[in-house]
Every structure is written in C-alpha cells, then in structure tokens.
Write a structure and sequence with these properties.
The protein contains 13 helices and no strands. The protein is mainly α. The chain has one domain. The longest helix has 26 residues. The protein starts with a helix and ends with a helix. About 30% of the residues are buried.
Length: about 270
C-alpha cells in the first residue's frame, strides 16, 4: 500500500513539473521548428510539402485511378483525406519523439534540465503542422459544398486524446531507445504496419462483422473515425461510450506506464549517453 501511495505522489510530482515547465516547452518547440527547417530553400514549407504530396498521390490513385465509390454519401477523396490527416500527426509525432532524447542528448547531461519535456517538444512541433492540415480540411470541405458544423468542435477532444496517447507512448519508446537502439526501427515498422491495418484507405465494413470489434480495439481507429464523425456523420464521441471508455482505459494505462518507465530510467540516461 505504501508503494502505491509513493508511486501516486511521484507521478503527481512528475505531472506538476511538466505543467510548470510549459513556458520552457513552448520556447523549445519554436526553436525545434526553426532548427528543422531554417536554412533550407523553402524553410517552413518543407513541413507541409511531404504530407501534401502523400495525400495527393493517394487521392490520385484511389479517386482517379481506381475510381473509388463514395463512402457514406461523401466523395471518397474527402473520406480518405479526413482519415489520413490525424494519422500523419500520430506517425510524425511518435516517430520524432522516439528519437528526441538522443537528439537532445546535450541537454540530458544538464542536471537542472527537465528531461521529461523533450518528447513533448516533438509532439507540439508536429501539432503545429497538424493545425495547418486541419485548416486545409475545412477548406476542402467548403470547396465540395459542405459547411462547418457543430460536431467539428470535437476535433479539440480528439487532438487532446491523441496528445495524451502519443505522450505515453513516446515516454516508453524514447527512454527504451537509449538502451536498445533498435527501438527506433521497431517503431518505424509498427507505424507502417499500423497504417495498413487501420481503416484509413479501406472501410471497416469490408471485413466480416465478427472481426470488426478486433479492428476497433486499435486506438488509431478511434481517432481517425472520430475525425470522420466530426466532419461527416456528425456523431459525437459520447454517443458510443463503449469505444470511448475502452480507448481511455488503454490510453490511461499507456500514459501511466510511460511515466513510470521514464521516471525509473531517467537517472541512467546521462551515463548511457
């Protein structure tokens, strides 16, 4: 019992420290964005070029090449892009956050620096790009004749859900990669595999009903489908409480596990690096 109480206190102190470091996190996020793109010919535009090209290629293949049929009475292009946008944020932020401690190793060796904020810097940096693509989504929908709706407001909820999930995952991967460098390659493969098993390019109704529940256990499905509900069906997240509860149970577990693992391994970071 005493161990549980000590753990709760340690976790709360950890979260309070993160909150108090919010100014530092924002400053480092701006510096990270500048460092990644400053000096190149197109500067910040490179942050948008690759995701945009990816979306255009997939749109051309499925909409023009395969002449895919509408989904839920919406053009396939809209259905596809709405699912890809949150996935790009998830993949980019987790991939970069995994290597963040290695990238900022010079800060890890400073005793006064709060190492736990480093993965969050990468997540917020990717979030900046994500805001741009969400704005593009609204523009594309308006070009197709669809106006903003109240259900769009729950995008804030799904962004928050993604950030909490990715933060927990990044604390796990960014701390483990210091001791096992193969973790970076594993994360890359898992993200590639996850893209294809998540109903982004294909509709979940294409598989038998008895297997759909297994697919819905994927937290990425909860997010991508949530974005589609926000723009298309207008369904709110509280209208399917079972999915929401299962998602937050998993996300809460990952977040706590990530925090515990990070706290336990952090004292050894400087020695290994």
């Amino acid at each position: 019992m005493n161990r549980i109480i000590s753990f709760i206190k340690l976790l709360l102190q950890f979260l309070v420290t993160l909150y108090r470091s919010r100014g530092l996190v924002l400053n480092l996020t701006v510096r990270d964005i500048r460092a990644r793109y400053l000096g190149s010919f197109l500067n910040f535009l490179w942050a948008f070029v690759q995701p945009t090209v990816t979306i255009l290629i997939l749109w051309f293949v499925f909409e023009v090449g395969f002449k895919s049929q509408p989904v839920e009475d919406y053009p396939f292009a809209l259905w596809l892009i709405t699912g890809i946008v949150p996935w790009l944020f998830l993949a980019e932020s987790l991939g970069s956050a995994t290597n963040s401690i290695l990238e900022y190793s010079y800060l890890v060796k400073k005793v006064v620096f709060k190492v736990s904020v480093i993965p969050i810097i990468k997540i917020l940096s990717a979030l900046f790009i994500h805001f741009f693509f969400v704005a593009v989504l609204f523009i594309i929908y308006s070009l197709y004749g669809y106006r903003p709706r109240w259900s769009n407001l729950q995008l804030i909820y799904y962004m928050f859900a993604m950030i909490v999930l990715i933060t927990g995952l990044s604390w796990i991967t960014s701390s483990l990669i210091i001791f096992v460098r193969d973790v970076g390659q594993v994360v890359t493969m898992v993200l590639q595999f996850g893209f294809w098993i998540t109903p982004i390019l294909w509709n979940i109704n294409m598989i038998p009903d008895k297997y759909q529940y297994l697919m819905k256990l994927n937290p990425a499905y909860y997010i991508t489908e949530g974005y589609r509900n926000s723009f298309m069906s207008g369904t709110w997240f509280w209208e399917y409480p079972r999915w929401s509860i299962e998602f937050w149970i998993f996300t809460g577990f990952v977040f706590i596990l990530g925090a515990v693992l990070f706290i336990k391994l952090k004292p050894h970071f400087a020695d290994v690096l």
